[in-house]
Task: structure prediction
Amino acid sequence: MTEQNTAFPSASILGYPRIGRRRELKKAVEAYWAGKIDAVALDAAAKEIQLGTAKRLQGLGLTEAAAVPGTFSFYDQVLDAAAHVGAVPARFGNLLNAEGQLDIDGYFTLARGNKEQQPLEMTKWFDTNYHYLVPEIGPETNFSLTSNRIVEEFEYALANGVETRPYIVGPVTFLLLSKASDDAPAGFSPLSRLEDILPVYTALLGKLAAAGASWIQLDEPALVVDQDTPEQEIQAAVARAYEVLAAAASRPQLFVSTPYGALNGQLGTLAATDIDALHIDVFKGEVPSAAALAALGSKTLVAGVVDGHNIWRNDLAASANKIAELQKSVAKLAISTSTSTQHVPHDVTEEAQLSEQLRSWLAFADQKAVEVVTLAGLLTDAATGVQSRDVQPAIDEATRVIASRAEAEGVRRADVRARTEALTPADFNRSEYAVREAAQEAALHLPPLPTTTIGSFPQTSEIRSARARNNKGDLTNEQYEQLMKDEIKRVVELQEELGYDVLVHGEPERNDMVQYFAENLEGFDVTVHGWVQSYGSRCTRPSILWGDVTRSAPITVAWAEYAQSLTNKPMKGMLTGPVTILAWSFVRDDQPLGETANQVGLALRDEIADLEAAGIKIIQVDEPALRELLPLRKADQPAYLEWSVNSFRLSTAGAADATQIHTHLCYSEFGAIIDAIDGLDADVTSIEAARSRMEVVHDLESHGFGRGVGPGVYDIHSPRVPGKQEVTELLSTAVKHVPSRQLWVNPDCGLKTRGYAETEASLRNLVEATKTVRAELLEGAK
Result:
């Protein structure tokens, strides 16, 4: 290997938000998709963001060589790895250009699909609200180095005075996160292609070494998850992968990071390899034993002591104790975040609308970088035996602020806690489903395969402009309300014209499915610039759940009541469920999540009662994040599933038998939690299924799922319009595995991010396909 003399930086982070402080990347990428800028302009915008990030992090104290991670991505880090190793599914044809490279258009085709092919499947990234694109690997996948972007990004930063640390998803995680291609034989495992993919990683290492990189970061978070693949098989793959990469004739030093949880048994496997530095998450995981740490020998242990996933200020005193314990057992120690800070906003100082008290409790990405630099000051210099600087004043200040938070008004409310403490088992249960089903049939009179949508309709530029003008005071509340009513009327009339059976009001008044409720519940605050990436160019602003939660007034009732007045067809009331409100907020960390979920559940229970009183007969309580919070270790999952399911049931158990309760889940591996989905006891459950081509119906069939279910037949996360035949085939597949009396027909998710032209065309095809399958069912029944 190439000789390297650069020590791993004493202070570093695993990654940084890549969308830009004002979502510059989102705007540039969407402008490119719209044909408003060319590839040269897109690349220039990306380089400006990358260099700005690097300089910013240097200014925050990450000044050592390779302290700044090169974790930029145009769309997704797993897609980036696929682009570099040539994992292009055969169904897309040849997306490589004349130079054998996957250019930016081919890259975006994998992410967004084209007229003929659906994009790569999308699912949640570990226990976060980030989504990644799932590579498709088979025996036929021809691995080769088909992108040079990681090298080019490193060279650009270096030419501008910053030696970054190049980054790629590690080979074992990449293969474990992949799915077998459509052409793969039964039982094929992508991990079986490890020997074939390692030469490509080795070639990349050589190119980075030639470019002058002293370190490369290989992310292996799949090693902190209990996988279906046998543990011994994964251990063998890890040992082999890093045996090969460490033996590369020319390479940077290898830094393997393992975020999102405790590494457990794989620590020894990696310690036995010739990697140069190993990151472990000691914020979420425990400090390993002295014996386990001693096995690292001369390797640098990079301790993730600062939470990269949530926004609360670090308890520097507790972190200092962990650092002191670690220093007793390792030869070399460096400080980092537990995960990439891509999951948090850029800078809390930009949130001037938040109270000074609340801001003092928080640490966004910039503040976390400072915390890492501060804690690195505790490291004992190997030569002098003294710490690099006095950090006690910072520790004392953090301790003071954390104590003040515990005593602040609203953090604990006696009235809220009295209500949760008074709950009994009866508060979590409805009547038997057969009783409810009969009451709902009598009340609703729905046809076979009833059609509906998930909730939101396109949020047009006019809607967003009206909201912005109202917030600025340029549009009165009365004017704004009338514009929203006009949009609701448009949406209702469109659904009537298309022939939908159960309607929605389209949610034009809602900025976000969680933030809207956060703004109307006590115990929350919202940000102005707190954007984080969900997937691709899609960004959200998670709310801050800092105190006890209660509802002071109805939230959705007036809008639902108005929408119902426009039609004789059933109108769904639309709520976001307690688990999703927690998952898509930055939730308080000072009490069990189950306690917080029950507080939110009671607020939603009150909202459902008011919707029923207003004449709403169908109420949807969305839980798309149910799978998202599932602990990565199987031993921790039963407790989570108990409180998460119970909080949903608490929300809905007060509903009358004739009130039909719907829920919605999206972009998850549902087979793992099918029992929990059943346990929600919703009357109808809609589930993402189009991009995965109806895989979920097999789980539903084998489980014997007995209530209403709507496996999605229209992938709304892509701009493509599914044809009538495509939808018919998906629906026909569903009918083969789920009794038709249980089936509903709906898109995968809400339509907020789509345009009206594609939405109308897709929804029309959905209705026409439903008519075809209904006719086939009728003919088959004769």
